[in-house]
Design goal:
Strand content: over 45%
Number of helices: 4
Order of helices and strands: EEEEEHEEEHEEEHEH
Helix content: 10-25%
Structural class: mainly beta
Number of strands: 12
Radius of gyration: 17 Å
CATH class of the largest domain: Mainly Beta
Strand order of the largest sheet: 1-2-5-4-3-6
CATH topology of the largest domain: Elongation Factor Tu (Ef-tu), domain 3
Length: 203
């Protein structure tokens, strides 16, 4: 589990092709790896991946073809938002995040307004019903709060206000119109839907 509070920005420095996927080398000089063991989970742009090898300032992870096909930002030498898995005693500064991307959205607008930035994203139809005004959503691993939501052809558009700190310390600063972003809906929404739609008679 994660919180959506980014602790460092890393860089994919090498992508080695595998039979079905990629082995990524991630340079992370600003991420404390002293307590990271082989087999531990780190979120990369919202995608939970397992550490298979590490050094003092870098590590390697494997990404399956299935994961590459349903996420964005892991198939090139890109910067990625990083977050180590949370401990039970950690402060939950964002919201509960699983690191399992639900879908890929597209940036409709990214514009500076005063000191902040307005980010507007179009979520695909499958995720539209889970996006709520003043609700939580994870964008490239960052826990954010939606301001406005409107249903449109092809999904739902939602806007987010990004404070200067968030823009400065995450890869969201690189976004532009047309950028693809990893989206994870609020974990609680999944369970609420299941409780409302499950058929007790089939149990």
């Amino acid at each position: 589990m994660f919180t959506g509070i980014i602790t460092a920005v890393g860089k994919i420095s090498h992508a080695q092709p595998l039979e079905k996927g990629l082995r990524l080398t991630v340079e992370a000089p600003d991420l404390d790896l002293s307590d990271v063991a082989l087999g531990d989970s780190i979120a990369h742009g919202g995608v939970c991946l397992t550490v298979i090898e590490k050094s003092a300032a870098s590590y390697k992870v494997d990404v399956s073809r299935e994961t590459l096909d349903c996420t964005a930002g892991l198939d090139g030498l890109n910067e990625v938002n990083l977050e180590k898995a949370m401990r039970l005693a950690d402060r939950l500064g964002g919201h509960l995040v699983s690191g399992h991307v639900d879908g890929v959205g597209e940036v409709v607008k990214f514009e500076k307004i005063g000191e902040s930035h307005e980010l507007v994203i179009c979520a695909p139809v499958a995720l539209a019903k889970y996006i709520a005004q003043k609700g939580s959503v994870t964008v490239n691993g960052v826990s954010l709060t939606t301001n406005r939501v409107s249903d449109v052809s092809g999904g739902a558009e939602f806007s987010i206000n990004l404070i200067p700190h968030t823009v400065a310390v995450t890869t969201l600063r690189h976004l532009k119109t047309g950028s693809r972003v990893n989206l994870e809906i609020d974990l609680i929404a999944r369970y609420v839907e299941r409780m409302l739609t499950a058929d007790p008679a089939s149990a």
